[in-house]
Amino acid sequence: LQVLVNFAKAGKTVAYISGEESIDQVSERLERVVDEVPDGLFLLSDQDLVNIMDGLSAQEFDAIVIDSMWI
Asked: 24-66, pLDDT tens digit by residue?
């Protein structure tokens, strides 16, 4: 998550997808790690691959991290 924050601070558009944690849980963890969440960081919480692909297709990303997925 910290690496994605650094990418976003450098002007990159990045996505973090969690299969276990809710957006609120990821946001709380993120707030403990950084002072300010950069604009280029997008969060998604889902385990359905179709939903994930739909969410990612709305924008072009420089980096995507998928955490804890079971397919």
From this structure: 999 998 989 888 888 999 999 998 889 889 989 989 999 999 9
Tell me the C-alpha to C-alpha distance, in Å, between residue 11 and each of 8, 14, 41: 5, 9, 10
Tell me the three state secondary structure of residue 65: strand
The owner of tokens 């973090």 is 16
Q: Please state whether 49 falls in left (phi above 0), alpha (psi between -120 and 50) or beta.
A: alpha
Indicate the pTM of the whole model: 0.86
The DSSP-derived string for 12-61 is: --EEEEESSS-HHHHHHHHHHH-SS--TTEEEEE---HHHHHHHHHTS--
